[in-house]
Write a structure and sequence with these properties.
alpha+beta; 34% strand; 3-stranded antiparallel β-sheet; Nucleoside Triphosphate Pyrophosphohydrolase; 201 residues
Length: 201
């Protein structure tokens, strides 16, 4: 099952040789909230731990952070000038945030870029993570690391759709609830985009 799952995911992705450029897939939506100004480049690691039941690696951010405190997120962050590409950003940030050894990660491909209300353009890097990879979260940034089975995300019964009001406008949203963790915002949208590309949404 694991090999089949990773094969299906890899077929749904943009190739590593072609990082997404230009517009984010939700840019028209974001234009209504934050205009057409420049977006700050960032990347996240959509990591799936290998095993008979592949599992997404997610974090809960520290409650004391100045931005997005306490929220669930993929490991990742802003692109630094020395980062060669989004893969380099995602691997560097994952090592800094959760102690993930880049040697234990096999990038598979990209999802389309996603613009956030905070002005970032996130490039999701989807990757396999070795089953035996050890995670050591940095307490200043990450309160917890947890794992969500791919099968849970693929089950339509676990996807909740709702509408959020922001700046006087209504915005369609998706979220997942897993073992007390609320997965919403950009993180849920990225997962939903992966499901859409796989034909499960």
């Amino acid at each position: 099952m694991s090999a089949d799952a990773f094969d299906a995911i890899a077929r749904a992705l943009l190739p590593l040789t072609e990082p997404p450029e230009g517009m984010a897939w939700n840019q028209d939506d974001m234009r209504a909230w934050i205009g057409d100004g420049p977006r700050r480049p960032a990347a996240v690691l959509v990591g799936l731990r290998e095993g008979s039941q592949p599992r997404f690696l997610l974090t809960r951010r520290n409650d004391r952070l100045s931005a997005h405190a306490g929220q669930v997120a993929f490991p990742g962050g802003r692109r630094d000038p020395q980062d060669a590409d989004p893969v380099a950003t995602a691997l560097r940030e994952s090592q800094e945030e959760i102690g993930l050894d880049p040697a234990k990660v096999t990038p598979l491909g990209y999802l389309e870029a996603f613009d956030t209300i905070s002005g970032y353009r996130i490039t999701p890097v989807v990757a396999r993570v070795a089953a035996h990879a050890v995670l050591r979260p940095a307490p200043d940034e990450v309160a917890a690391v947890f794992e969500v089975p791919l099968a849970f995300v693929l089950d339509p019964a676990n996807l909740r759709r709702y509408t959020m009001e922001f700046a006087g406008r209504h915005r369609p949203m998706v979220e997942f609830q897993h073992e007390g963790y609320r997965i919403w915002g950009a993180t849920a949208a990225i997962l939903h985009n992966l499901l859409t590309r796989m034909g499960h949404a």
